[in-house]
Amino acid sequence: MQLSGLTSTHRAALIALVLLLLLGTTYADWATGPELSLTIFYVAPVALAALLGSWYGIAVALLATAGWFAADALTNAAHTRPEIPYWNALVQLLLYALIVYFVSTIQRARLMQQELSEFIVHDLRSPLTAIRAALKGCSGPCEVSDSPTSAVLRAGMNSLDRITRMIDDLLDVARAEGGRLKVSPELLEAGLLVVTAVEQMRPWASDLGVTLETDVATSLPLAFADAGLSLRVLINLVSNAIKYTPSGGVVTVSASFAHSQRVVLAVTDHGPGVPREWAKRVFGKFEQVEARRSGAAIGTGLGLAFCKLAVVAQGGRIWIDSEPDVQTVVSFELPAGERS
Question: Which CATH superfamily is domain 186-335 in?
Fold first, then answer.
């Protein structure tokens, strides 16, 4: 999570921590006296405050300098010349100002880089949408006159849909980490989510020779969740399952009711599975890169990272139960609502 995306509560807590560190350092400086200078330890609260913004850093830099000067004065440090403490305070203030400048500059550069990446990724949608519209326009007449061409067009449209989902994941992971992911919970049918996800993924699964099945429990309560985010999570999980299911295999998408008023949606496949040492780590933003280097088949891109962020943002949780080469079940819970 980037500090720029902290909520007001978290920001207040961090500021309180900075002030506590500052007071603790000042007290330690006063208690040790002139024999042991703790000037360097003021750097920690100054740098931490600078991450929140340059003005926070400058304010804490002034407080750190004042704290050091007070500790020095109260301990009656012996100096050959009376102006030395003031000179030392000025030098330290300049040091802290440099720290604030460099930390704030690095933070701003990171934010600008993130914003630029978001703009580029967002702008990719327009040409992809135009390409998909062109392919869809061709698929009608081609589907009747030329079956092989129709299959190629369908595969192209499926690939474009996958790329679009990856772009959406990239944007929403950045929004979630910055506290900007919009969640609009409502009462919805979990069974309808399952059916919608399966119907959207069925053409691609059919092309790969994979069968999609549904298993929706009877008398299933309504889920209280964001329909768009929940559907994208489910589609991401189904997409991963299809990708690693061999031709002729079956992927099952289910919805059931769990204890504590939770609706559970799950995707089951019989592919290579996830090694146990990666089962709890695959939802991390950068863990997938390390997992793929070690040979674990857990997907590509930020799909699973998005899934976790989207589910947690709705008050749920997500997990994996996997027995390699036998069965893998990826499940996530959503709060249940009440039918009117």
Answer: Histidine kinase-like ATPase, C-terminal domain (3.30.565.10)
Comparing 114 with 306, the larger pLDDT belongs to 306
Residue 277, φ and ψ in degrees, nearest 5? -70, -15
pTM above 0.70, yes or no: no
Burial 252-266 (b: 16+ CB within 10 A, else e): bbbbebeeeebbbbb
Portions of the chain given CATH number 3.30.565.10: 186-335
Q: What is the DSSP string of 64-127?
A: HHHHHHHHHHHTT---SSTTHHHHHHHHHHHHHHHHHHHHHHHHHHHHHHHHHHHHHHHHTHHH
- Between strands 186-188 and 211-216, the pairing is unpaired
Q: For residue range 247-274, what is the model confidence (pLDDT) as tens digits?
A: 999 999 999 988 768 899 999 998 888 7
